[in-house]
Amino acid sequence: MTHTTIDSPIGELTLVARDGALSGVYMPEHRPAPDPAGFGDRDDAVFADAVRQLAEYWAGDREAFELPLDPAGSPFQLRVWDALREIPYGETRTYGWIAARIGQPTAVRAVGLANSRNPLSIVVPCHRVVGSTGALTGYAGGVERKRFLLDHERRARLDSVA
Questions:
Q1: What pLDDT is stored for residue 89 in this prediction?
Q2: Which candidate, 1, 85, 124, 133, has a CA 20 to 30 Å from the CA of 112?
Q3: Both 90 and 157 in a single domain?
């Protein structure tokens, strides 16, 4: 395990990798809070691609990440996190949509719990999931960061067609 930290518009991000594959992207006040003791030594070089792609995302020039990922989770969580990556940039989907997408339409609450445990914030876009009414619901980095990320993507998408 290795880690680095980078500045971002939503505060300092901690990037964690296992054997060179990104396994975590954590924000300040991340809930549930990961244990920094498991982040390993600092090694900025391992994260060059992730840092570049995150900078492109913040600049509005990247809609999807192309990085080797290695999140730790149950088979159910991994299916949920894979479905999150199908949500188009600048759009939102509901927990019910995710549940149906993974073939378990009655598992909405379990999807919500798996979504809240996503260790790859931003890269695996759990911020694009909203409640059934379209309301912003909880987010590991706080609802204000979720709102910021959604607004950022909508603005970048509008700028790209203008």
A1: 96
A2: 1
A3: yes
pTM: predicted TM-score of the whole model, two decimal places = 0.94
The CATH number of whichever domain residue 93 belongs to comes to: 1.10.10.10
Radius of gyration of the chain (CA): 15
Q: Give yes or no for residue 20 having a pLDDT over 90.
A: yes
Domain shared by 37 and 85, yes or no:
no
β-strand pairing of 41-42 with 2-6: parallel
Asked whether residue 65 is assigned to any structural domain, the reply reads: no
Active site residue 47: no
Token pair 């479905």 in the structure block, residue: 83
Catalytic annotation, pick one of 27, 126, 140, 156: 126
The secondary structure of residue 92, as a DSSP letter, is: -
Residues 99 and 136 sit within 8 Å (Cβ to Cβ): no
Question: What is the spatial distance between Cα 105 and Cα 98, in angstroms, rounded to a whole number?
Answer: 8
Query: Which has the closest alpha carbon to 95: 106, 85, 149?
Result: 106
User: Residue 55 above 70 pLDDT?
Assistant: yes
Which one-letter amino acid corresponds to residue 118? N
**Position 131 in a domain:** yes
Q: How far apart are CA 23 and CA 119, in angstroms?
A: 7
Range of the domain at 79: 75-161
pLDDT (tens digit per residue) in 130-147: 999 999 988 888 999 999
